[in-house]
C-alpha cells in the first residue's frame, strides 16, 4: 500500500513523520514548499492507495469531495487528529482498507480507531472486507449492501464457494444447496444474481503468430472468456515464450489490461512437469511442444485451469496460483 500523509501544523507534521516511520509513506505539510490542500489531494487521490490527513476531518472531507467516484476505485482515506487521539476512516473502509489502516495507525500512536461501518459496529461478517483480505475482485459492488443488509437484519445469508474455505464459517452464513440460492459466490465463473467475488489468481499463457495485433489478441481473449464462462478479472499476469518478448501487439495487449508479462525460454518451458496439449508445428518453430499452457503453469507455479484455446492464430490457456481462502475478514 502506498501512503501519503498531509499535516496542517508543526505538531501534526511531527505526528505524521512518526507514523511514516512505522507505516511508510510520503509526508508533506500544507502551505509549505508550495503544497496546497487542493493540489495535494488531487494528485494523491490518483497516485496513492491511502491518504492520511493529520488535522481536522472537515478539511479532509472538503479536499477529497471532488474526487470521490466509487468504493471499488477510491483510495483509503483516514483522518488523525494532531494529538493522535483518534484515527477515523472516512472513505473506502472495507475495499480500500481504510478501517485496517486506522487500526494500524491507532496501534502506532495509541489512538482510538473510530470505525463507523455498520457491519463493524455490530461485529458481523463484512463480505466486501472479506473479499479484499482474500485477494478477490468484487464484480457487482452494488450488491454488497444486499448481503450486509440481510446480516444486519438477522436474516440468513447463503454462499457458494468453488474453493474450499478454511476456518469457522461466520455467524449468519450458510452453504447454499443450489447455485441459484446463493447470495454471494466465491468463483472464477460468475453466473446468476449473486454477489460474485473473483479470486485474482489467474495467469494467462499466450502463444501467437508473429505480428499479431493487440486487437486480434483482445478478440481471442474475449472468445476464451466466453468459451469457459470465466471472469476476465481473475487474470493478474501473462506469460509466453521469449521469442515473443518484442511483439508490439502482445505487449500492448498486456499493457492495456495492466498485466505484467513474463517470457521464458524453450528450455524453461520444456522443464515444466505435467501433461500438455502437444503441437508438432509449435515444436518445430519454438523448440517446445506447447507455449501457452506451459508458460501459464510455470509463471503461476500452480495448476492448469483451462487448457489451450485457439482462435485467429492465437493460443491461450489459464493457470491459477495456489489459493487457500479462509474465513477471516479483518487483520488479526
Automatic annotation (TrEMBL):
Pfam families, per the entry: CbiG_C, CbiG_N
Entry protein name: Cobalamin biosynthesis protein CbiG
Domain of life: Bacteria
Residue stretches making up the Cobalamin synthesis G N-terminal domain: 41-120
Domain CobE/GbiG C-terminal intervals: 203-319
Signal peptide bounds: none
Any one Gene Ontology BP term: cobalamin biosynthetic process
Transmembrane segments: none
Record Gene3D superfamilies: 3.40.50.11220, CobE/GbiG C-terminal domain
